[in-house]
Amino acid sequence: MYNVVFVLGPPGSGKGTICAQIQENLGYVHLSAGDLLRAERERVGSQFGALIENHIKNGSIVPVEITCSLLENAMIASKDANGFLIDGFPRNEDNLSGWNKQMGGKVNEQFVLFLSCPVDVCIDRCLHRGQGRTDDNVDSLKKRVETYNHSTFPIIEHFGKLGMVREVNSERPVAEVYNDVVEVFTAANQK
Ligand SMILES: Nc1ncnc2c1ncn2[C@@H]1O[C@H](COP(=O)(O)OP(=O)(O)OP(=O)(O)O)[C@@H](O)[C@H]1O
Ligand SMILES: O=c1ccn([C@@H]2O[C@H](COP(=O)(O)O)[C@@H](O)[C@H]2O)c(=O)[nH]1
Ligand SMILES: [Mg+2]
Q: What residues bind ATP, as annotated (predicted)?
């Protein structure tokens, strides 16, 4: 049984930044669904490259069969990890039901880390990220935020009703956010 923590929040809320630090210090393996999709987009011979790029530019969501298979393969490749940080997934109902179908019974979902941050701050961070992402521009960001509000936030609410959400305000400096996140992990792993 794999331990899994879903890490959700608006685009630019700091999911990747915090997950990298948790991976470094707590032995969880960081799996960013977006990074896995970008790698698949670049993979020579992939039949999904154009489809993935289209979704990424439009801030829309790639069919779950593709994303979930990339996640499961990455988990199998690191099967000795303490657990997995699934960053940026599940993003909509299709993601959630597809994940439950494919992964139900194979994972222990510990909690959902929700990094909350005002959208204007998040957009500003993305516009200054400097990684050359094809979706870090005003047009794509508008669509990404719309998708987050309409499709992803309801998934966070769904987990909230199950008592699984641990919210951390990520508008603050990274070190402060990280300290609170570590407390969340410590509490979860004491159970
Ligand atoms: N707490 C913070 N304060 C200021 N800047 C931050 C903070 N956390 C992250 N950043 C910066 O904001 C940008 C976006 O961070 P990051 O890539 O971690 O976000 P993300 O949630 O993974 O975004 P996306 O959903 O677009 O992948 C990066 O340039 C990062 O260095
Ligand atoms: O589960 C997922 C995760 C991501 N996507 C697509 O990728 C981009 C970028 O994701 P980041 O988390 O910001 O790296 C996202 O806007 C989606 O288009 C996805 O479809 N499914
Ligand atoms: Mg990210």
A: 12-17, 129, 172
Which pLDDT tens digit goes with each residue over 66-89?
A: 999 999 999 999 988 989 999 999
What CATH number should be reported for the domain holding residue 78? Answer: 3.40.50.300
Nearest ligand to the C-alpha atom of residue 131: 1
- Alpha carbons 53 and 141: distance in angstroms, whole number: 15
Distance 131 CA to ligand 1 centre (A): 11
Question: Contact at 8 Å (CB) between 114 and 169?
Answer: no
Q: Which ligand approaches the C-alpha of residue 115 most closely?
A: 1
In DSSP terms, 4 is beta-bridged to: 84, 109
What ipTM goes with this model? 0.99
DSSP three-state, residue 163: coil
95 known member of a binding site: yes
The answer, yes or no, to whether any atom of ligand 2 lies below 6 A from the CB of 56, is: yes
* Number of domains comprising the chain: 1
Domain ranges, residue 36:
2-185
What digits encode the pLDDT tens for the residues 103-153? Answer: 999 999 999 999 999 999 999 999 999 999 999 999 999 999 999 999 999
